[in-house]
Write a structure and sequence with these properties.
alpha/beta, Rossmann fold, globular
Length: 117
């Protein structure tokens, strides 16, 4: 399947992720985007980890049903409690979280030297 014309999906528990979306629009002006704000269940931080994880998977499932080519989890709580499980469950699609950029670099690079600029 040609994913060129598919959208990039964003989700947050409200409107905070819109600032992340705005930056993505600036950096990727030729891309299409879908944004879902789960304000009905916000904030995820007061939920049990199990509840927040289930809500996160529901939002990701919704975006996948919209046939997106990548997903940005623009919610710190959802990222911290579910990003690893999301990436394992949905290996066919890139899932980007709000964790510091250094974390995946360290995890994927091994025992080498990482330069931060």
């Amino acid at each position: 399947m040609d994913k060129t014309n598919l959208s990039i999906g964003f989700f947050d528990t409200g409107v905070g992720g819109i600032s992340v979306l705005k930056e993505a629009i600036k950096l990727l002006p030729k891309e299409n985007f879908i944004y879902i704000g789960d304000s009905l269940n916000a904030p995820y931080g007061v939920k049990t980890p199990e509840e927040a994880r289930k809500l996160t998977f529901n939002m990701v499932d919704k975006l996948i049903s919209m046939n997106v080519k990548a997903i940005v989890v623009a919610c710190n709580t959802a990222t911290s409690i579910a990003i690893d499980e999301l990436r394992k469950a949905y290996k066919q699609i890139p899932i980007i979280g709000m964790e510091p950029a250094l974390k995946p670099a360290v995890e994927n690079y091994g025992n080498g030297i990482i330069v931060i600029m």
